[in-house]
From TrEMBL, chain A:
One of its GO terms (molecular function) is oxidoreductase activity. This is Iron-sulfur cluster-binding protein. It comes from Natronobacterium haloterrestre. Residues 42-76 form a coiled coil. The keyword Transmembrane helix does not apply. One of its GO terms (biological process) is lactate metabolic process. The keyword Repeat applies. It holds the Pfam family LUD_dom. Residues 366-393 form the 4Fe-4S ferredoxin-type domain. Keywords: 4Fe-4S, Coiled coil, Electron transport, Iron, Iron-sulfur, Metal-binding, Repeat, Transport.
From TrEMBL, chain B:
Residues 64-163 form the LUD domain. It holds the Pfam family LUD_dom. This is L-lactate dehydrogenase complex protein LldG. PANTHER family: LACTATE UTILIZATION PROTEIN C (PTHR43682:SF1). InterPro entries: FTHF_cligase-like_sf (IPR024185), LUD_dom (IPR003741), NagB/RpiA_transferase-like (IPR037171).
Length: 742, 174
């Protein structure tokens, strides 16, 4: 990526932060909070997600067979099923249906699939009046804008902006002002347009092969009117929407509203088996009783392939087809919360899973536009009701994008970067992906390396060449690494005297930069009678993986395992300070290591505070640590790490601090915004700071502003220090018997 | 332990949907208290219960436009959610429950089920037989105009009339 491209990208993001950021933030935070509350009420939440996942896995596996079964049931019911290869094919068919019905107007309920087809434009080219009846979609149609969210398409617009738009466009007798007035105005106007419509077009959230029913999840009631008022109903849906039976719908009904907008259930879940028994509502014949009508309803189910069958054959994109388009991955995403779908989206889809959809239906170029906005924080993983590994899809697509221009020899970095990637990888990605090499070099040449990176001209050069934003302070390398320090010092608790033996994994950041937290970890473990070893081990592969350099990460995984395997065999516990590295061991290594190796490392490795918690629970003497009841003990403002939370490990830190009588207030933002290298990148610096502001706000309240800032992740510590101009430390630095924070 | 009826009532309370329990004998009077005229309705498929004469039970498009209240039968109620299942009928239950400002759903207590899986199990055979229904929970709503508004395209208000199984059941007061 050239410096011009980066600047253009930064400019676009800045513009969206200013114009749409506020409304997007308010709405997505509301949805996200609602999701937490709503799923907490659901006793069987985890079991329901497992069931939903199973149903989707089975349905996609059997898809060709289910489509044929569905064709039969739809035809038996008196409708038709058209399987369209692509958007053009679908649009041709829909135009024919409109043409055969001499349709002057088609009314539509909200459907992202119809956005994917751009069917409105296709119909309008034939002179058909196409009217969106979902209020949010209608606002966008009037404003001639694209959706910024897959469920709530107009969330980037405020009440005042919509009022201004309507007043300008429709010039009502009395200017419209409130949401109530705007809604009633829209209801009346759209009601008239629906009454005169010739064809109603809906999407479908699910389609059941056994009955030929479509399920529509809505709240306004416009989909109900769209489907039954006109005599012709066209439903468009991706082939992936087919499930085997009606009974399979139950878990999705319970999950979709909760996961998306945080509602236990939306106002209406329509289960239509078209052509429906409901009478056509013909307002031109106002006195004809419904019961006396003899309607000959027409129903067309247009199923769209448009790349989906190929996604099904793609081992990495296949999971995308399980997506039920609930929007949880968008609402839970810290970056999305700041910029919304106009930045974090492609031609049609937006949010975390959009990379999969865009790569599958529109092609990699569309995904490449926004794929970098996924930082891999993994907060969407637990939010997804069908448990899609969304960060992995983003990583795979990033890797594929990296390889697109493969073969181009990159003379500047090829010799410097010992990775497994082809020459085409973006220079910036390569720099951050090979951070370990940089850290080694920086440490070996410290303190000189730190002086040079503080020099203005050096920062300018770094920004120009590799896009490291000059506003972001760079971490300083330590001359003496943690491994070197420990080698000189040696263990203070012998194996013979120890209750347990630990290999402390020297992650890149702790080893070369924040050596202090490594030393504190050693002292904390030894205080609890643990024999500690610190082997020389390579980086976990987190850095290259975050840049989409999968082969490099894979190679690192093998080397890490090789360096730890003997220790695990010897019954030593692997303890990890940096949560993003532990997350590699616990999650991503499943893809890189043989199953038994992965299982052994996963089961034998612990986050440092998780381990301390276990020691204390098993009788270790807590008084040997610094506790919160001392005169000078600090009160704590704690921010857990995104991936640590996804692994559900944050609770151990909280429990240890509270058990040791610290006064702790915890943040509740999804991510600090730094996310490894993301916040260093010139094009994303301002977005990173905007995300960080939500965290900064929580730590600058009267209750938190004089507390010691504690964070588990390195990049969270850096981000908090930049945001607050206060020191931020790891929890072990508070518990350290030699802690300087007491 | 809370009963299914109590859970249903609590869920409806959270949705701000008033519910009235009544007996078949007191149905007309109860309906009179929750329906604002003019009232349009579709036939109730419940033995011993039918729409009173003051309800227009032969709906037309014109009646939809002029009615303030629409009365339709619910085939099931879902206690966990406060939902009512409204089957589509050729007489127009779908539009009658949708167009007027207020919808009154009439449900028999015996048709109340505890949870969503049970409701869907009951619906399976109906849908496979060509039937259609809507699971309706509270009034029509939207937040698309910048704040939550009730009555987006469908009813602004919903009322539920719950018909007790026996004449002497509790809550038989209209």
């Amino acid at each position: 990526m050239s410096t011009d491209t980066r600047e253009r990208k930064a400019e676009r993001i800045r513009h969206l932060l200013e114009t749409e950021g506020e409304a997007v933030e308010e709405n997505t935070l509301g949805f996200n909070e609602g999701r937490y509350e709503s799923v907490a009420d659901l006793e069987e939440y985890e079991a329901l997600k497992d069931r939903a996942r199973e149903i989707k896995e089975d349905a996609i596996e059997r898809l060709p067979e289910l489509i044929e079964q569905l064709r039969e049931t739809v035809e038996e019911n008196g409708g038709t099923l058209y399987l369209a290869d692509d958007a053009a094919d679908a649009n041709r068919y829909i135009r024919e249906v409109a043409g055969e019905n001499d349709a002057d107007r088609v009314v539509k309920s909200k459907s992202m699939t119809s956005e994917e087809l751009e069917v409105n434009e296709a119909l309008e080219a034939d002179g058909v009046d196409v009217v969106e009846t979902d209020l949010g979609e209608w606002v966008l149609q009037v404003a001639d804008e694209a959706p910024s969210h897959i469920v709530a398409p107009a969330i980037h617009k405020s009440e005042a902006e919509i009022a201004e738009l309507f007043n300008e466009q429709f010039d009502p007798d009395e200017p419209l002002e409130t949401a109530e007035e705007l809604t009633m105005f829209a209801r009346e106007r759209l009601g008239e347009l629906i009454a005169d419509a010739d064809v109603g077009m809906t999407g479908a959230n699910f389609i059941t092969a056994d009955s030929g029913s479509i399920m529509l999840v809505t709240s306004e009631g416009n989909a109900r009117k769209t489907a039954v008022v006109p005599d012709t109903h066209v439903a468009v849906a991706g082939v992936e929407k087919v499930v085997p039976s009606v009974e399979d719908l139950a878990p999705f009904i319970e999950l979709i509203g909760r996961s998306g907008t945080g509602q236990d259930i939306t106002s209406y879940v329509s289960l239509l088996t078209p052509p429906v028994d409901s009478p056509v509502v013909d307002f031109d014949d106002p006195d004809l009783e419904f019961a006396d009508r003899d309607d000959d309803r027409e129903f067309h189910l247009v199923l769209i392939d448009n790349g989906r069958m190929a996604m099904r054959e793609d081992e990495h994109l296949r999971e995308t087809l399980y997506c039920i388009r609930c929007s949880a991955c968008a609402n839970t995403c810290a970056n999305f919360q700041s910029v919304g779908g106009h930045a974090f989206g492609g031609e049609t889809y937006s949010g975390g899973i959009a990379t999969g959809w865009e790569a599958g239906v529109h092609g990699q170029d569309s995904a490449a536009e926004f794929n970098d906005l996924c930082t891999g924080c993994s907060r969407c993983v637990e939010a997804c009701p069908v448990k899609i590994d969304i960060p992995w899809i983003n990583t795979v697509v990033r890797d594929r994008i990296n390889r697109e221009d493969g073969g181009q020899f990159d003379f500047l970095v090829e010799g410097l970067t010992p990775d497994e990637e082809p020459g085409g990888v973006d220079l910036q990605k390569r720099l951050f992906g090979n951070y370990e090499t940089l850290a080694k070099l920086g440490s070996a040449t410290a303190p000189v390396s730190n002086w040079t990176t503080k020099l203005g001209p050096v920062r300018t050069l770094m920004e120009k060449t590799v896009g490291v934003d000059r506003r972001r302070p760079l971490p300083a390398f330590e001359r003496t690494t943690l491994v070197d320090w420990f080698e000189d010092r040696g263990p203070r608790v012998s194996a013979a005297d120890a209750d347990r033996e630990v290999v402390l994994y020297p992650d890149v950041y702790t080893n070369y930069i924040d050596v202090e937290r490594g030393k504190a970890a050693v002292r904390v473990l030894e205080a609890l009678s643990v024999h500690v070893r610190i082997p020389s081990a390579p980086g976990s592969g987190r850095a290259p993986l975050s840049q989409g350099m999968i082969d490099t990460a894979d190679e690192k995984a093998s080397r890490v395992y090789a360096s730890l395997a003997e220790h695990i065999d010897a019954g030593r516990d692997v303890v990890v300070i940096e949560p993003s590295d532990l997350a590699m061991f616990r999650s991503e290594y499943e893809k890189f290591l043989p199953e038994s190796s992965y299982e052994r490392l996963r089961e034998g490795s612990y986050e440092i505070l998780e381990y301390v918690y276990g020691l204390l629970e098993n009788g270790a003497d807590a008084d040997r640590l610094r506790t919160g009841d001392g005169e000078r003990a600090p009160d704590i403002a704690y921010h857990s790490h995104c991936q640590q939370r996804t692994l559900e490990l944050d609770r151990y830190t909280r429990a240890v601090l509270e058990d040791l009588e610290y006064d702790v207030l915890e943040s509740d933002v999804e991510c600090c915004g730094m996310a490894g290298s993301f916040g260093y990148k010139e094009q994303y610096y301002e977005l990173s700071m905007d995300v960080g502001d939500r965290l900064a706000d929580q730590f600058t309240t009267p209750e938190t502003s004089d507390r010691l800032v504690v964070a588990s992740g390195t990049s969270c510590e850096d981000q908090l220090e930049d945001l607050l101009a206060r020191e931020a430390v790891h929890p072990v630095e508070v518990l350290d018997p030699r802690s300087r924070h007491h | 332990m809370t009963t299914t009826v109590e859970r249903f009532e609590t869920a409806l309370e959270d949705l701000e949907v008033p519910v009235r329990r009544t007996t078949p004998a007191a149905f007309d009077e109860t309906l009179g208290r929750v329906a604002n005229e003019p009232v349009v309705g579709t036939p109730l498929p419940f033995e011993g219960v039918s729409l009173p004469a003051w309800v227009d039970d032969e709906p037309t498009p014109g009646a939809l436009e002029s009615a303030t209240t629409g009365v339709t039968a619910a085939s099931l109620g879902v206690a966990d959610y406060g939902s009512v299942v409204l089957p589509s009928t050729p007489e127009g239950s779908e539009p009658v429950s949708l167009f007027p400002e207020r919808h009154v759903a009439v449900l028999r207590e015996r048709d109340l089920v505890a949870d969503m899986p049970t409701a869907i199990e009951r619906l399976g055979p109906e849908l496979r037989d060509g039937g259609s229904a809507v699971i309706a929970t509270g009034p029509s709503a939207t937040a698309d105009m910048g704040a939550l508004v009730k009555g987006a395209h469908g009813p602004k208000e919903v009322r539920v009339v719950l018909i007790t199984d026996a004449e002497d059941a509790d809550g038989g007061e209209p």
